[in-house]
């Protein structure tokens, strides 16, 4: 310890080391202990004799570090002086002034002792030391606000509750605090006042505890004086807060400025000390430093928030609990209301002040005081007033939402109290309108974090409202215009709540609660809507907003209980019921109240109401049905028809179902034979009671059929279906719009949808689809509005652009014959306008198409008849048959596999017979597929000899509506010797709705024609077809259309002369040239003669020019021959003969060459001695540019004995050897050798 009573400082100390003899004993301890221990001790000691046995070692030192840890000892002189102030009472003012220089660690270590000392000084001389003690107390309290010492606050609390004994201190503390506040408008530097405001919580704790101690000691004396002083203190607090609401400028020093010394300020004493000393000295408060003698150094450009008010507001809510110890809840609430009411009402003081003000209100709401109903009745209006102001200005929305949430939480927990109804009434009057306006403003922004908070506040308020509140709310509106504005706001907010994603997707409970509150509110508001806006004062905008809300509400995804599990669905139904049904009943009730005003919502509300019927809930649908009847009835009354209802209903039905809405049960919504559900009849039954029932029934029938097609179309587009299926569904819908409903706009939309599907599948017959739109346009200058991807343009321009696109698609699809007429039409238009540049382009395009027709190879597709049988097929396929155009190179087997792949559940029927009724009505899928032959309409072109086969080939398989297939059968007993005598053909001709190709690769069979072809007629047909094939081949060689050797022609001739299968056409001779047949069938005389003529035509001399052999190949299949009937193909045989009626015996020798000197050389020898003996020789030699030799020899003596020899040699660019020998049908020899090149020979 030092002489002044403090301990050694915390540092390292250098201690002296003394020498002594080893045997020396410390007999004189006092002498040793009296030696100096360190340098400071040495300087203070008197001279030390050198004869001492202890001598200091100058070479050795001993260092020691000290650290004080004590709650009784201190190293601070000022603190020790304060604790021992009674030793020097004359220095008390200086000691108190130096307390600020004591470290915080020392103060908190001696906190209780210091506080005891301060209040002891205060009790000793209140008038003299009161301000300085107050200032010291404020300093200590603010020290504990520092986060470093914050954990010492419980020590302070314990001291106040258990150790504080200053029973008279409250008077001086109140006086000093009030004096500080009263002078806040006069002083410039307000740091000391701000510190006092920050210490307000603990100052009040000391004041209240002191008053409690005084009351205990005096049995409650001076109670009235205490209450008066507290009231005056609150008046001063309100005075401080009111300063910011004045229009005068708030003067704040700029950073770094220093005030001049005041006239009453003593040297060395700070301005705060001088200010504190003034009352104690009995002087008037000194002027603010620098007020008279210093130039102003503050900023006064604009009103700014006072730090003093901010400090006061931050501390103010913390004193409520202390006041409740001495005052009733109502009294404290009155104090607080007066204080909050004195805050500036404007929200233009600056963001920081607004935040502080609202934070103070928020802490007030969260305090224990606000939990008492009697205090809320007093405080709620002023709190709501400030929130209302900020919401009006859209300021500090997040803090305001937090305050409102706290208020609603308190009200909800106290909802059983009767006082809550009054509080809700106050909140409705003050907040409801501004809450709606705020929400509309927030929802208009794309992103806002406050939206959810304010939605919760609005829902909480509406949830607390009863019918009484709604009734008072309606009565408080001064005019219909105000009421209308309110309705539009609340309905708009509700609509936005259902449109926007306010809450996270998985907050199902919150979404259901929101829906329940909206439904309840709508039920409360409906009577007022009907009462004020129906009759003479009908307002379309309000009613339309109400209906739109109802429709949105019913279609909410969160209310579609069908998507929930059974357990969740039952839970929702138990708690809320099916809110869709409740809102639908409300909607229907309001619709009925409209009366004659219903006409205002036709056709505008047809689409929304139709959307309600798409909800998969039976009761909802059947409640809505009478509304459509009303719409039809009212338009019928007004216009004499219901065309608007019809058009709008169809348009909206299409768009809604295309969006994926509706289910299987919806097919029967407009059905003709629907059962009754609930209290409402079906639409059809209501219509049948009207005078316009005929048109009404027709309309319902059309809509029902449209629904079936739309649902099929939607299911196909939604599923993973093939392109063919999607195209089929679209064609079905497109045809319906054209033929049954005549909706041109919808028709055109589906034309382009179908075109896009074709293009995705690279099927360029999409041109036929666009032609449908092209045919609707005229070459006129009428202006067309923007539609789909077409801009605003004249009808002429749109048709021209469409023509070019169609021509382009025809070119890519190699359908040049279809593009030529369009080129001509476009050329005519260009020529009439003298647009020669475009005319030149289109003429060149047309010429290029002709070149393509003659030069490019095109494949003839196969055609297949497909029957779809069974109820499991889609509506437009069910129990119908189609003819499909196959893909390139696609044959029957491949097509059948493809169809079974598209319909994996289908069963392939193995016979061509028509299915019975059991198959048609079964719940399965049956596919019946077989090939068919096109029957072209352009017969004239096909019969012209000089028309190239490339051209004929196109007309044989294009633009054909008639297709046939033959089924052979035996009528009567089968002739075993010659089956052709009893072999009949059942020929079925299928007539399609549209020719192929067209807008689809398949079309439905419109009509079937069935005829039976007799054996003789069949023979005539087969021979005639073979003759036509020969003529075609000869013509192709004559006109050099086939470039290459004549193998194709040779083989065909060989098949005619020597048919090695089933005896050839000799069988026809045996069957039909017999005397017995001619006698028994006199009616066939003409046909027999025709058959003879055809047979003679086959052997009639025909000259033909053989072209140079350049290689190549030709068609081997008989054009137009049935693909599924074997007997016609068996008819390719030798010319039949009759020994009793011999035909003309001919010798045919033909030698043809373009140049007898140079190759090629072709020799064809045919010798017929009789109809039973036939000799045929064919020789072909070609030596340039390669060596080619072909030899064919055929000898036929009788049908049972035949000799055939064939030899073929080709030596460039590869070596090929072929040898064939046939003695009889039972013995044959064949040899074939082919080498890839001569080098491998």
From TrEMBL:
Residues 1016-1043 form a coiled coil. Residues 281-301, 1093-1143 are annotated as: Disordered. One of its GO terms (molecular function) is guanyl-nucleotide exchange factor activity. Gene3D superfamilies: 1.20.58.740, 1.25.40.410, C2 domain. GO terms for cellular component: cytoplasm; plasma membrane. One of its GO terms (biological process) is small GTPase-mediated signal transduction. InterPro entries: ARM-type_fold (IPR016024), C2_DOCK-type_domain (IPR027007), C2_domain_sf (IPR035892), DOCK (IPR026791), DOCK_C_lobe_A (IPR043161), DOCK_C_lobe_C (IPR043162), DOCKER_dom (IPR027357), DOCKER_Lobe_A (IPR046769). Residues 1130-1142 have a biased composition (Basic and acidic residues). The keyword Ribosomal protein does not apply. Residues 738-1144 form the DOCKER domain. Residues 1-69 form the C2 DOCK-type domain. Residues 290-301 have a biased composition (Low complexity). Belongs to the DOCK family. This is Dedicator of cytokinesis 3. The lineage of its organism: Eukaryota, Metazoa, Chordata, Craniata, Vertebrata.
């Amino acid at each position: 310890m030092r002489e002044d009573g403090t301990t050694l400082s915390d540092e390292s100390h250098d201690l002296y080391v003394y020498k002594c003899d080893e045997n020396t004993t410390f007999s004189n301890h006092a002498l040793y202990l009296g030696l100096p221990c360190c340098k400071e001790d040495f300087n203070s000691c008197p001279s030390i004799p050198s004869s001492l046995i202890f001598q200091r070692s100058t070479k050795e030192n001993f260092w020691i570090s000290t650290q004080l840890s004590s709650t009784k000892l201190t190293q601070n002189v000022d603190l020790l002086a304060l604790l021992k102030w009674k030793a020097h009472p004359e220095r008390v003012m200086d000691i108190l002034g130096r307390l600020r220089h004591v470290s915080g660690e020392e103060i908190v270590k001696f906190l209780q002792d210091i506080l005891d000392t301060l209040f002891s000084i205060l009790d000793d001389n209140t008038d003299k030391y009161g301000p300085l003690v107050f200032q010291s107390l404020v300093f200590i309290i603010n020290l504990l606000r520092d986060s470093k010492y914050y954990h010492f606050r419980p020590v302070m609390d314990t001291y106040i509750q258990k150790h504080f004994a200053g029973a008279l201190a409250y008077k001086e503390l109140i006086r000093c605090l009030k004096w500080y506040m009263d002078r806040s408008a006069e002083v410039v530097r307000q740091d000391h006042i701000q510190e006092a405001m920050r210490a307000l919580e603990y100052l009040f704790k000391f004041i209240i505890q002191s008053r409690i101690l005084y009351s205990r000691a005096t049995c409650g004396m001076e109670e009235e004086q205490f209450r008066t002083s507290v009231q005056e203190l609150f008046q001063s607090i309100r005075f401080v807060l009111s300063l910011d609401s004045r229009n005068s400028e708030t003067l704040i020093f700029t950073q770094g400025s220093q005030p001049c010394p005041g006239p009453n300020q003593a040297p060395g004493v700070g301005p705060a000390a001088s200010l504190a000393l003034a009352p104690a000295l009995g002087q008037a408060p000194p002027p603010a430093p620098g007020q008279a003698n210093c130039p102003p150094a503050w900023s006064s450009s604009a009103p700014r928030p006072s730090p003093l008010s901010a400090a006061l507001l931050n501390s103010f809510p913390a004193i409520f609990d202390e006041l409740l110890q001495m005052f009733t809840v109502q009294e404290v609430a009155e104090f607080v209301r007066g204080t909050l009411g004195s805050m500036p009402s404007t929200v233009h003081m600056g963001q920081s002040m607004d935040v502080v003000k609202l934070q103070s209100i928020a802490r007030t709401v969260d305090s224990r005081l606000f939990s008492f109903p009697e205090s809320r009745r007093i405080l709620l209006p002023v709190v709501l007033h400030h929130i209302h102001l900020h919401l009006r200005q859209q300021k500090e929305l997040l803090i305001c939402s937090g305050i409102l949430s706290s208020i609603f939480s308190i009200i909800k927990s106290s909802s059983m109290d009767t006082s809550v109804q009054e509080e809700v009434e106050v909140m409705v009057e003050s907040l409801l309108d501004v809450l709606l306006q705020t929400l509309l403003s927030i929802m208009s922004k794309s992103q806002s974090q406050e939206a959810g908070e304010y939605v919760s506040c609005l829902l909480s308020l509406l949830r607390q409202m009863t019918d009484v509140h709604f009734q008072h709310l309606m009565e408080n509106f001064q005019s219909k215009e105000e009421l209308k504005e309110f309705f539009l706001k609340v309905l708009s907010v509700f609509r936005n709540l259902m449109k926007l994603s306010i809450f996270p997707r998985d907050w199902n409970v919150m979404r259901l609660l929101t829906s329940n509150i909206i439904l309840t509110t709508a039920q409360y508001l409906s009577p007022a809507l009907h009462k004020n806006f129906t009759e003479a004062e009908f307002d379309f905008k309000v009613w339309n907003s109400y209906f739109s809300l109802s429709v949105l509400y019913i279609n909410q995804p969160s209310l579609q209980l069908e998507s929930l599990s059974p357990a969740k669905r039952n839970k929702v139904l138990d708690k809320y019921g099916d809110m869709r049904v409740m809102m639908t009943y409300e909607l229907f009730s309001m619709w009925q109240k409209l009366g004659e005003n219903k006409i205002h919502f036709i056709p505008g509300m047809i689409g929304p109401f139709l959307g309600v019927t798409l909800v998969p809930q039976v009761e909802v649908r059947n409640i809505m049905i009478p509304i459509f009847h009303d719409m039809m009835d009212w338009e019928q009354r007004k216009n004499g028809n219901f065309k608007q209802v019809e058009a709008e209903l169809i348009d909206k039905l299409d768009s809604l179902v295309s969006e994926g809405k509706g289910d299987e049960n919806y097919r029967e919504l407009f059905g003709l034979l629907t059962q009754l559900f609930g209290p409402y009849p079906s639409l059809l039954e209501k219509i049948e009671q009207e005078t316009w029932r005929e048109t009404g029934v027709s309309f319902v029938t059309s809509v029902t059929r449209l629904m079936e097609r739309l649902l099929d179309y939607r299911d196909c587009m939604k599923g993973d279906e093939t392109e063919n299926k999607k195209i089929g569904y679209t064609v079905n819908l497109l045809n319906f719009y054209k033929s049954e409903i005549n909706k041109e706009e919808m028709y055109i939309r589906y034309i382009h949808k179908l075109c896009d599907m074709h293009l995705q599948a690279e099927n360029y017959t999409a041109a036929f689809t666009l032609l449908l739109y092209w045919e609707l346009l005229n070459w006129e200058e009428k202006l067309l509005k923007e539609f789909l991807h077409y801009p605003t343009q004249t009808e002429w321009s749109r048709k021209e652009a469409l023509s070019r696109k169609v021509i382009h698609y025809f070119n890519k699809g190699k359908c040049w014959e279809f593009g030529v007429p369009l080129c001509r039409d476009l050329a005519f238009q260009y020529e009439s306008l003298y647009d020669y540049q475009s005319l030149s382009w289109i003429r060149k395009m047309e010429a290029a198409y002709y070149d393509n027709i003659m030069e490019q190879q095109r494949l003839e597709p196969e055609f297949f008849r497909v029957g779809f049988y069974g109820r499991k097929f889609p509506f437009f396929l069910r129990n119908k048959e189609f003819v499909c155009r196959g893909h390139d190179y696609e044959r029957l087997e491949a097509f059948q596999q493809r169809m079974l792949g598209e319909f994996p559940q289908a069963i392939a029927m193995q016979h061509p017979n028509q299915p019975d009724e059991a198959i048609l009505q079964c719940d399965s899928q049956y596919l019946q597929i077989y090939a068919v032959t096109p029957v072209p309409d352009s017969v004239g072109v096909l019969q012209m000899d000089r028309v190239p086969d490339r051209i004929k080939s196109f007309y044989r398989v294009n633009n054909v509506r008639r297709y046939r297939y033959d089924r052979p059968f035996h009528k009567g007993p089968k002739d075993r010797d010659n089956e052709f005598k009893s072999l009949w053909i059942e020929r079925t001709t299928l007539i399609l709705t549209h020719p192929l190709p067209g807008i689809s690769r398949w079309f439905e069979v419109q009509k079937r024609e069935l005829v039976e072809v007799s054996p003789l007629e069949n023979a005539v047909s087969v021979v005639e077809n073979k003759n036509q094939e020969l003529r075609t081949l000869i013509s192709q060689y004559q006109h050099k259309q086939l470039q290459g050797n004549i193998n194709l022609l040779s083989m065909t001739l060989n098949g005619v002369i020597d048919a090695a299968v089933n005896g050839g056409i000799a069988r026809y001779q045996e069957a039909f040239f017999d005397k017995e047949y001619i006698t028994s069938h006199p009616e066939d005389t003409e046909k027999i003669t025709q058959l003879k003529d055809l047979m003679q035509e086959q052997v009639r001399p025909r000259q033909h020019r053989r072209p140079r052999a350049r290689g190549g190949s030709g068609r081997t299949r008989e054009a137009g021959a049935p693909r599924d009937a074997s007997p016609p193909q068996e008819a390719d045989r030798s010319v039949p003969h009759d020994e009793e009626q011999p035909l003309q015996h001919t010798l045919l020798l033909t030698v043809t060459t373009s140049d007898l000197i140079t190759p090629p050389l072709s020799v064809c020898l045919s010798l017929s001695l009789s109809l039973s003996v036939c000799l045929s020789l064919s020789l072909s030699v070609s030596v340039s540019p390669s060596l080619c030799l072909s030899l064919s020899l055929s000898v036929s003596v009788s049908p049972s004995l035949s000799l055939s020899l064939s030899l073929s040699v080709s030596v460039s660019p590869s070596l090929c050897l072929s040898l064939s020998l046939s003695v009889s049908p039972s013995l044959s020899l064949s040899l074939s050798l082919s080498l890839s090149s001569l080098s491998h020979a």
